[in-house]
Amino acid sequence: MSTATVHRRKLSATGTVPPSVSAAKPKPRSPRPSLAGNSPGAAQPQDDGQAARPVRAASLHPRAAAASNFVPDPVTLELTDRAEHPMLTPSWRAFRAYASNHPQLSELKAQGLVPMMRAHQGLRLAIYAVAAALVLLFVALLAYWWLLPAPAAADSPYATADAGAAQSTAANQWEQGVVPSLYQSDTSWADVPYGQATLASTGAAPVALAMAYVAATGDTTYTPVEFAQWATDHDLTAAGVDTIGAFLQQGGTAFGLAVDPMIVDDRTLRHAIVSNVPVLVVTQPGTFAPAASVVVLDDIDKDSHIVLHDPTSASRSAKGWAFDDITDATALAFTVHEA
Fold first, then answer.
1. Structure confidence by residue, pLDDT tens digits, 22-53
2. Is residue 330 classed as helix, strand or coil in its secondary structure?
3. CA quadruple 198, 201, 202, 206: dihedral positive or negative?
4. What pLDDT score was predicted for residue 36?
5. What is the mean pLDDT of the chain?
6. Which of 19, 159, 174, 238 has the most CB atoms in a 10 Å sphere around its CB?
7. Cα distance between residue 182 and residue 170, in whole Å
8. Strand pairing of 293-300 and 306-309?
9. How far is CA 123 from the centre of its chain?
10. Nearest one of 249, 254, 258, 264 to 229, comparing CA atoms
11. What is the pLDDT of residue 193?
């Protein structure tokens, strides 16, 4: 017989609880926390005659411990009272009033810039950043001035003054085998946008390609405007030698031409010219123009000088050129055929 059964029989017979049973009492539950914020152990019974302490209602926005130490900006308060705060009435006058009344400006006037920089790391870093930006700007301008090609010197064979406005060959006179004289300044296309400017200032490549196209095909359908638009659509309007060379080859192919690179020397140039083949020459910066430009070689005159067409200058187009002057100024050269 189990011990529990014996205990139950003794309890029913005598009405007393054995010691082992009375010792096993359930533990009392801990009281719930008070809604007033008191800890469970701090709850004390109060006498009926003692007044209950007022309980502050719970809030979702507790008061910050350091809120009593907040000191508002007096300048902001003053401007707000006068309804001149920039956020209330945005204007230059209100902003100037706020900036001139700011305590940091008074500190700057009283102490000077150097002590202010020592005391405020943010101000020091800001001034250093502005100084570094100015230095970088100066270096960039110096590099630009140093690397910018200078125009041809006064005694250079490439320096030729133009007299009067250049006159392009009329479209009804264009024919195959003859290179027409076309100029960037022609009013028919001078104001057409090209790159960051217009054909009048930077459009030597499309104008030169238009001249070579007419001489190779005899087609009068396309003018420098169409070639310039193609270069713009294909992002080939920059004035670099490589970009101009890419435009002449790719643009010529797009318009049915075969634009082939060639070796630049006296013999090769002479052979191409006497074969009645237009030759496109991409010139070095600082020769025919401050930047890279394009001229079209057309013929050889009785003095064994090269006859060329320069879209930037009628005077240079009317002048005979020594072979050495052309080869010295050449960066790239291409022969042009009808594909």
1. 444 555 555 555 544 444 444 455 555 555 66
2. strand
3. positive
4. 46
5. 79
6. 174
7. 9
8. antiparallel
9. 28
10. 254
11. 94
Which segments within 197-301 are labelled E, that is strand?
A: 197-198, 257-261, 279-283, 293-300
Q: Check pLDDT > 90 for residue 192.
A: yes
What are 91's two structure tokens?
A: 């204007």
Rounded Cα distance, 238 and 261, in Å: 20
Cβ burial of 212 (10 Å; 0-12, 13-18, 19+) is buried
Sign of the Cα torsion 122, 125, 128, 130 reads: negative
Q: Which amino acid type is present at position 174?
A: W
Strand partners, 298: none
* C-alpha dist (Å) from residue 166 to 199, 205, 281, 317: 14, 17, 21, 10
Q: Which tokens belong to 153?
A: 């010197």
Following DSSP, what letter does each residue of 162-199 receive, concatenated?
--S---PPPGGG--TT------TT-TTTTTSEETTEEH
Distance of alpha carbon 211 from alpha carbon 216, whole angstroms: 9
pLDDT digits (tens, 9 = 90+) for 287-311: 888 889 999 999 999 999 999 999 9
Tokens of 150: 């200078």
More confident residue, 106 or 339: 339
